[in-house]
Amino acid sequence: MQELTHYLNGAHVKGTSGRFADVFNPATGEVQARTPLASAEELDTAVQYAMAAQPAWAATNPQRRARVLMKFVALLNRDMDKLAEALSREHGKTLPDAAGDVQRGLEVVEYCIGAPELLKGEYTDSAGPGIDMYSMRQALGVTAGITPFNFPAMIPMWMFAPAIACGNAFILKPSERDPSVPLMLAELLEEAGLPKGIIQVVNGDKEAVDAILHHEVIQSVGFVGSTPIAEYIYATGCANGKRVQCFGGAKNHMIIMPDADMDQAADALVGAGYGAAGERCMAISVAVPVGDDTADRLMEKLVPRVEKLKVGPYTAGNDVDYGPVVTAAAKANIERLVQTGIDQGAKLLVDGRNFNLQGYEDGFFVGPHLFDHATKDMDIYQKEIFGPVLTCVRAQSYEEALGLAMDHEYGNGTAIFTRDGDAARDFANRINIGMVGINVPIPVPLAYHTFGGWKKSVFGDLNQHGPDAFKFYTRTKTVTARWPSGIKDGGEFSIPVME
Length: 499
Ligand code: NAD
What we know:
This is methylmalonate-semialdehyde dehydrogenase (CoA acylating). GO terms for molecular function: methylmalonate-semialdehyde dehydrogenase (acylating, NAD) activity. Keywords: NAD, Oxidoreductase. InterPro entries: Ald_DH/histidinol_DH, Ald_DH_C, Ald_DH_CS_CYS, Ald_DH_N, Aldehyde_DH_dom, MeMal-semiAld_DH. It is an enzyme of class 1 (oxidoreductase). Helix 2 runs antiparallel to helix 4. The mean pLDDT is about 95. With about 500 residues, the chain is an alpha/beta fold. The chain is globular. The strands form 6 sheets. It has a 7-stranded mixed beta sheet, with helices on both faces. The chain has helices at about 40-60, 60-80, 80-90, 95-110, 115-120, 155-165, 180-190, 205-215, 225-240, 260-275, 290-305, 330-345, 380, 400-405, 420-430, 465-470, and strands at about 1-5, 5-10, 10-15, 20-25, 30-35, 120-130, 130-140, 140-145, 170-175, 200, 220-225, 245, 250-255, 285-290, 345-350, 370, 390, 410, 415, 435-440, 455, 460, 475-480. It contains 16 helices and 23 strands. It folds into 2 domains: about 1-250 and about 455-480, Aldehyde Dehydrogenase, Chain A, domain 1, CATH 3.40.605; about 250-440, Aldehyde Dehydrogenase, Chain A, domain 2, CATH 3.40.309.
């Protein structure tokens, strides 16, 4: 069995803690590798390398840093198929979806190539008599990121590309479920010319995370994952004086107005609800048709589409709509929540239980489920299922539908399907959710805008990528300067003001 490594100071390094986690092939259920789980000492080794390398990297001019990212983009494109295959093998998503995972990360790298422009400071000539004032953005130093299993290429790139472009060193603690692609990305960055020690990968679990949170050299922590862990990391990181941004779980509602095109709405729901087996933080997991007639028309279109979904291993190529979920534990949790839905009285219109794929009996496959007539007190509505389960909650009016999404504890993404511009505009203005789609079911903003939810989907105040990332990974320093000829004689005892 393959033994994975850490990636420290430009080299693959075996784990020394003696602790390992199994890495599965979710399609077959087999353990295909084991990944080391770092101790606090191993994390500290990475920090020491990062500290040694970072000052020279920060002093490298931003255009040269950007050129490394340009080369990195070329290498990502060169190795796209290899990366997608490695990603599918550990995560389970289909190959086109895995390539999309790499591509959405690559697009943020492309954005970060604009670092020389994005890092430009501000300057005021003659802010006072003979006084000039300027502000600059400087790197934080050693930064770290903790990422989830569901986008093992994209989310690490969303963090390390801006961190590195700004002149920081970055230590990545990827998910222990699928650590191979993050290791490959670190290798590619160094092939692109990144100095050793600027990107490092420390594999691990809570022990490595806690070591990051308590290491006094680490200046910032980025986190993406489930809400309870996001909350813990935010509280602990902030208590230790770090700059922290944490992105948590989701329960994304799609509101279907009576005037929507039901074919379009149903197509959007199958893609956004079941793509990647529902393991996306921007998956639509709740459909809210407005009015019973709308709900009936929607279900008529939706049920046959859900029944026709093709579930299988990534090796089956284009013949598959979605693959297995990531682990046996994830599958068991989905099945448990489905059972609560049945027990609590929702109507299971498409029953994906007992799904069986010949030749892949030990894989972590979950058939597609569709619930109708769910209510807001049910577990299937309140909890993030993170599986191929779409729950329909019928609303009798637009206000009721809006209220459902507004009252839910999560606020990552949402969508409205309608032909009515007024309704769409009202929805976009009033909804308390960070990313809104109008006839777009998965409104993931592009690299030059920012990504982030509201409510329990986020802890911290700056979003991922776009201009916010350059703020998160730098500090502002403001210099006020005057030269001897402008300095009056004698001390000045009252606060200088501009009269
Ligand atoms: P997770 O919270 O289980 O794990 C995320 C990271 O935290 C991993 O690196 C893991 O090793 C670490 N971790 C796990 N338990 C920990 C603990 N007790 N203490 C410290 N660290 C711990 O999440 P996951 O299952 O990998 O990913 C799925 C979740 O991520 C879903 O809730 C999904 O909605 C969310 N997600 C959110 C976004 C977003 O942008 N809001 C994006 C992708 C995924």
